[in-house]
Here is the input.
Amino acid sequence: MSDISAPSNLQIEDRNTLKHKWYEDVFAILLGALFIGMGVTVYSEAMLLTGGVAGMSLILSYIAPLSFGTFFFLLNLPFYLLAILRMGWEFTLKTVVAVTLVSIFPNLVTGWIAVETLSPLFAAILGGAMIGMGMIALFRHGAGIGGVSILAHFLQEKGIMRAGWVLLSIDAVILIASAFVLPLTNLVYSIVGAVVLNLMVGINHRPGRYFGR
Here is the structure.
């Protein structure tokens, strides 16, 4: 008797040949970047932090006159060389587009919605979930949001470490550094947001769970 839990040869072939169409990539990158941009906006309104280059950009936007988008775009520039060398031109070009959109969307979102009252705890959970969902959309369509996400994506593709745990380690260092910028309560809420974000990525984006390419 055959094992009904084992995939058939046809199923395996379908999984190996299934690829995203170009318009699916465009749609996913647009929505993924929008989710991240909205999550960053929520964090910015509550003066919270996230990890990676986005976290560094938020810190700088709190203490300098330039916007998050400006810092985010500039700080990501050095990481594109790693993306080209390790991940290829297609991934790099998609990532450049995603980073550019994430740099623009927060400025647009503040013109689309107005926030009068925002609980820091709710902001941490909602912002972390939205950024995590956006990152998953980008990862699954062969893109990243630049910076350490390129490194995390590369390490997971090579089977070295899951992306969520790479990001969690780097985020911990950034959150510790942010203690010199934010009040303790904001730092605590930022840690909650980081846990939500990385659980979203760690649980939902891992080898063997998703077969689209």
